[in-house]
Design a protein that fits this description.
single chain, alpha+beta, 2 domains, about 300 residues
């Protein structure tokens, strides 16, 4: 793992983004190395982990040692709640769903990435729908309806993977590759644009919202992630900001997982190592005990089940 940057902002009380001034603290760290971090938090901004690599078939494990109380930041940016129509970026690591408290003062967060066996032994589409919990449905499914003919063309009851492939192909087929300047995050508007023009405009943001909306329309959970991918442009490898959708595979034995569905990069069910995905700015929890000035953090990777 290359050296990365741990970035913090000072206490910020205004949500008017243009007026923010933030003190930045950059700390280099390496995998499995415990580092001490300042526990500077604000109501809207707190510590962020910048550019955290996603490794195929591995989970990110973050061990946080703090002798106080924390509040998980499940959304990556709370200031966007009123401005984004449908799908907000979910905190990929320090989410309350990823948290285990091993002992007082030791908070462990582990992602739910797919392992090799998740893909080899993937349940059918119908098995997945039948085993989604009420809690996941309430959080990650927005009720939507598609024309019956389109729904039938996207759904494969015997194969979840084939269903994801069909969604991936359909989104690419109806994407115009033209730019758009607003309304990236409104599925109904994007879908109506497709019905009217036969195509929809926009970059990866619109593609991921269209993907998430179609997954929801099939009765599957969906959420958004943002980060970077490495792409070859004019014979150079460059890092580009990116958004993608994920859907959920419930498991009776073992941990359930979230898998990527990213038509823009042709990624289905597993993170392609050739694309080199990473999370952009992963928000740490808010540290609630102001008298405790520091915490300790260790980042490791472990094989996903």
């Amino acid at each position: 793992m290359e050296e990365k940057v741990l970035r913090y902002y000072n206490d910020v009380k205004s949500i008017e983004i243009d007026s923010l001034t933030a003190k930045v603290i950059d700390l280099e760290f390496k995998e499995e190395e415990i580092i001490e971090i300042p526990t500077i938090s604000g109501e809207y901004f707190q510590g962020e982990l910048l550019n955290l690599d996603i490794i195929q078939h591995q989970n990110i494990v973050a061990d946080l040692y703090y002798d106080g109380t924390i509040k998980c930041v499940d959304l990556e940016d709370n200031t966007l709640v009123k401005r984004i129509k449908d799908y907000l970026d979910i905190n990929p690591v320090f989410h309350s769903e990823n948290l285990t408290i091993n002992e007082p003062g030791h908070y462990q967060f582990k992602t739910k990435h797919p392992g090799f066996w998740n893909l080899l032994m993937m349940p059918s589409f119908q098995q997945i729908k039948d085993n989604i919990s009420k809690e996941i449905k309430s959080k990650y499914i927005i009720e939507r309806e598609l024309p019956e003919e389109l729904e039938k063309s996207l759904k494969n009851k015997d194969s979840f993977f084939e269903t994801l492939k069909k969604v991936n192909y359909f989104v690419n087929a109806i994407h115009s590759k033209n730019d758009r300047v607003k309304d990236f995050y409104d599925f109904n508007l994007l879908y109506d644009e497709y019905l009217t023009k036969g195509k929809f405009d926009g970059d990866c943001k619109s593609i991921s919202v269209m993907t998430a909306g179609l997954l929801n329309s099939l009765g599957l959970p969906a959420r958004m992630q943002s980060g970077f991918t490495k792409q070859k442009i004019k014979n150079k490898i460059v890092q580009i900001g990116h958004s993608w959708a994920e859907t959920y595979i419930p498991k009776k034995d073992g941990e359930s997982v979230w898998v990527p569905v990213d038509p823009a990069m042709g990624t289905i069910a597993t993170y392609n190592p050739r694309t080199n995905y990473s999370y952009m700015q992963t928000a740490l929890p808010i540290f609630l005990n102001k008298e405790i000035k520091t915490a300790k953090l260790k980042i490791t990777y472990e094989k996903a089940d």
